[in-house]
Amino acid sequence: MKVLIVYYSAYGHVHKMAEAIAEGVNEVTGAEAVMRRVAETLTDEVLEKMGAVDAQQTLAHVPVCTIDELASADAVIFGTPTRLVTCAARCASFWMPPVNSGPKARW
Ligand SMILES: Cc1cc2nc3c(=O)[nH]c(=O)nc-3n(C[C@H](O)[C@H](O)[C@H](O)COP(=O)(O)O)c2cc1C
């Protein structure tokens, strides 16, 4: 069973949680964790001002998730930092269907 763990992380905290979850998934017989991240949309200049450059380097080896990968997984675990009392905007735009696009718009 393929368990896709897809997340966004700016400073590395959600990344660490995703790693811990992947470790747990891989302890289950027949389950395989696949880690993927939501693409960063901020420029290097903005990341530098945020103090997030070092953290971004620690998770750069994780491949960016595609919509097709969401559909092909047996289970999906999403991870997002709380941003202004909701999920990070880049997560919402990645995994939620656009308004008025119908139920099969994304995956
Ligand atoms: C712009 C911004 C907005 C945030 N808004 C909230 C919030 O509304 N509630 C909260 O509990 N934490 C909030 N946080 C804190 C983050 O959710 C928290 O630091 C999280 O662990 C960061 O995860 P990351 O290191 O994987 O990016 C906010 C952080 C940032 C940078």
Describe the structure.
The protein is of the alpha/beta class. It has one domain (2-95): 3-Layer(aba) Sandwich (Rossmann fold). It has 5 helices and 5 strands, in the order βαβαααβββα. It has helices at residues 13-26, 44-50, 53-59, 67-72, 89-95; strands spanning 2-7, 32-37, 75-79, 82-83, 86-87. A 3-stranded parallel beta sheet has the order 2-1-3. It starts with a strand and ends in a 12-residue tail after the last helix. The mean pLDDT is 90. Bound molecules: flavin mononucleotide. Flavin mononucleotide binds at residues 9-15, 81-85.
Lay out the secondary structure:
Layout: E1 2-7, H1 13-26, E2 32-37, H2 44-50, H3 53-59, H4 67-72, E3 75-79, E4 82-83, E5 86-87, H5 89-95
This protein binds flavin mononucleotide.
Flavin mononucleotide is lined by residues 9-15, 81-85.
Q: What profile does the largest beta sheet have?
A: 3 strands, parallel
Any idea of the CATH class?
A: Alpha Beta
Q: CATH homologous superfamily name?
A: Flavodoxin domain
Shape: globular
Secondary-structure content class: alpha/beta
Q: Output the radius of gyration.
A: 14 Å
Query: If helices are DSSP runs of H or I spanning 4 or more residues, what is the number of helices?
Result: 5
Helix content: 25-40%
State the assembly state of the protein chains: single chain
Q: How far is it from the N-terminal to the C-terminal residue, by CA? A: 19 Å
CATH architecture: 3-Layer(aba) Sandwich
Bound molecules: flavin mononucleotide
Mean pLDDT: 90
Query: What is the fold named in CATH at topology level?
Result: Rossmann fold
H-E order: EHEHHHEEEH
- Kindly give the count of domains: 1
**Spatial order of the strands forming the largest sheet:** 2-1-3
Low-confidence stretches are none
Number of strands: 5
